Amino acid sequence: MQCQCGREATIHEVTITNGVRVERHLCEQCAQQQGLAAPTAAPINELLAKFVGAKVQGKIGPKPPTTGQCPQCGLTFAAFKSTELLGCPTCYEAFERPLAPLLERTHEGGTHHVGKVPRRALESSRLRGPEALERLLGGMAERQERLSALRKQLQAAVQAEQYERAAQLRDELRRVSALAPEIDDNPPEQGECSPIQPPERPD
Amino acid sequence: MQDPAGMPGPNSPIDYHAPTPWLLGAGEASDVVMSSRARLARNLAGFNFVNAASREDRRHALAVCRQRIMDAHLAPRTAWIDLHETNHTVRTLLVERHLISRQHAKGRINRAEGGVDEPRAVAVSTPDEALSIMVNEEDHLRIQLLGSGLCLADLLRRIDEVDDRLEAGLDYAFSPRFGYLTACPTNVGTGIRFGVMLHLPALKITGDIEKVKRAAGGMSLAVRGFYGEGSEASADLFQLSNQTTLGKSEPTILRELTEQVLPAVIGYERTARRKLAEHRGDVLADKVHRAIGLLTHARLLSTEESMEHLSMLRLGIVSGLLPGLDQGPVNHLLLMVQPGHLQMLTGRVLSQGERRVERAKLVRDRLAGVLG
After folding, report:
1. What's the pLDDT score for residue A165?
2. In chain B, what residues touch A115 (CB-CB under 8 Å)?
3. Residue B93 above 80 pLDDT?
4. Considering B239, B273, B307, which residue would you say is the last residue of a domain?
5. Which residues of B touch A120 (CB under 8 A)?
6. Residue of chain B with shortest Cα separation from A123
7. Which of B253, B309, B340, B365 could staple B93 via S-S, CB 3.0–4.6 A?
8. Residue at a domain's end among B205, B240, B273
């Protein structure tokens, strides 16, 4: 079976809405573009060679700041490419743009942290007020990005009928959105969690 | 603490003669799962990562971490070992007991400057050796918990507590977007790595081990050997661990491994063992008894060869071919045949040729007690 682009379709999606069955058959590239498939993870050295090498040669995307340096430790992106190690916490901000696609591929499409937050830092930030809390959890835009990344994954899981994964993502959304009700407009008790509720798993 | 040959003495904080907890052969699914491991990568805010730090900065970070680890009362007793003040023998023993990485033993951070005298350390809970914290490895803190059998959920709960206790007195490098910041971006986010060491001899015999490796690769899981990254799988022991740390919470990473992947792999190995016993029982029994014959009569044994045959002996025990025998002493032998432990037991530095002689003698003596 062929994808709409002519390549062989490897991802097959069936959705039933109001009793109407819709089938889609896509190749991996088109599926990724349409948010149906997570990019496959690859070893970091391969990714570095592919992304950094291609970008330096001007084949894809904007040129990364290969001449730029981390203002804190002085590391260049070229040096990171050779050692695969960053020099300090500030490197993550200094090289955020060239690192983003690399992280996304390495972590199967993961772009934002949704796990544990340092407990003592969270408690003391709560006591110090909204500004301190935002420094730890990010500003409104950052928090919304994190939630929308999770919602996107949830939507894809529901469409692919991956109910266990969808339920996990729903829990993830609840937990992340409950982190800072003080600074969020939509605390969980008011219904924030996700506009999409995964259906119960069929028997 | 150490004798002139560099062997740990009677006052050593770690009893290198004792079995390690991850080799007890106890716990859930211990017929297939030898041990479970959880580790967290953490860095101090306001410091360069270890690979970009000056020696003075590394000393400073080490002192900060030491103070906190010793104040946090993480275990009834915690041994602190300054690795830059130890000798090669002690570092080898710690690697063989899975308390430090090979990289930490060498004291080099990838291609960065360094060496055996680089300021770095490990803290170990004693006598159980379940908790170890490497300081100034690739990250300032690498917190590790080990347990026997399949016990990842318990390890997550306990390592979370250890992490909280440490963080109560330390400022971690953390970003709202990327989570816990680590020197290598492959660990960023949760900084957590779960791992299990699986004994898969039947899948090796049936040739289906390659299928498992391919399937694991497709699920972004790493398959490594007995001694971690870059090591070959010895004694049919494979380490399976998660690869992704960003975009999923710790419980989700755990669930993917324990609810989706591990039951399948454990099931494959058990099925392969059952089929071997049912359809090729004579072949299986022959392999197990040949291994016993070799282990109890050989006069020269390399590490690799002894582990290969100990693996078959273990398979015989967990398959019920050798009733009344416990896998614990056999697991313990897997550790004692390693070069560092062998030299520690004999009390002197041995050449490779001497090690083969002493290893064969050790295995004969120990198995005489086990097999009766």
Report:
1. 82
2. 179, 189-190, 192, 248-250
3. yes
4. B273
5. 164, 167-168
6. B168
7. B340
8. B273
Instruction: Please indicate whether, in this complex, the C-beta atoms of B246 and A87 are within 8 angstroms of each other.
Output: no
> Are A102 and B183 within 8 A, CB to CB?
no
Domain that holds residue B338: 280-371
**pLDDT score recorded for residue A59:** 35
Check A75 against B252: CB less than 8 A apart: no
B201 to chain A nearest CA, in Å?
27
pLDDT at position B278: 92
What pLDDT score does B231 carry? 54
CA distances from A24 to A39, A198, B34 (A): 19, 21, 44
| Closest chain A C-alpha to B77 CA, distance in angstroms | 24
Token duo for residue A133: 């809390």
Identify the top-confidence range among A107-111, A189-193, A195-199, B62-66: B62-66
B174 contact A CB<8A = yes
Residues B26 and B127 in one domain: yes
- For residues A202 and B11, the model is more confident at B11
Where does the pLDDT of residue B199 fall: very low under 50, low under 70, confident under 90, or very high at 90 and above? Answer: very high
B60: closest CA among B142, B135, B143?
B135
Q: What is the pLDDT of residues A162-174, one digit of tens each?
A: 888 888 888 888 8
Domain shared by B317 and B361, yes or no: yes
Q: How would residue B19 be classed by pLDDT, with cut points 50, 70 and 90? A: confident
Angle made by CA atoms B56, B59, B60, in degrees to the nearest 5: 90
A83·B111 Cβ contact <8 A: yes
Asked, for residue B13, whether it belongs to a domain, the answer is no
Q: For A23-27, B16-20, B160-164, which range has the lowest pLDDT when averaged over its residues? A: A23-27
Q: Residue B116: is its pLDDT beyond 90?
A: no
Residue A76 has pLDDT above 50, yes or no: yes
> Of A79-93, A171-185, B293-307, which range is least confident?
A171-185
Residue from B51, B166, B177 to probe the interface with A (highest A Cβ count within 10 Å): B177
Quote the number of domains for chain B: 2
Query: Which chain A positions have a beta carbon within 8 Å of B186's beta carbon?
Result: 44, 106
Pick B189's closest partner by Cβ from A44, A102, A115: A115
Say whether both B217 and B366 belong to one domain: no
Query: Which two three-digit tokens encode residue A172?
Result: 């993830």
Q: In the structure, what pLDDT confidence band is assigned to residue B286 with cuts at 50, 70 and 90? A: very high
| CA distances (Å), origin A139, targets A123, A131, A180, A181, B217 | 17, 9, 11, 13, 37
Q: Do A103 and B246 touch (CB under 8 A)?
A: yes
Do residue B159 and residue B208 come from a single domain?
A: yes
Closest-CA distance, A165 to chain B, in angstroms, reads: 9
In a domain? residue B324: yes
Which tokens belong to B361?
A: 């003698």
Quick check: A71 pLDDT over 90?
Answer: yes
Query: Which amino acid would we find at residue B57?
Result: D
Q: How far is B144 from chain A (nearest CA, A)?
A: 17
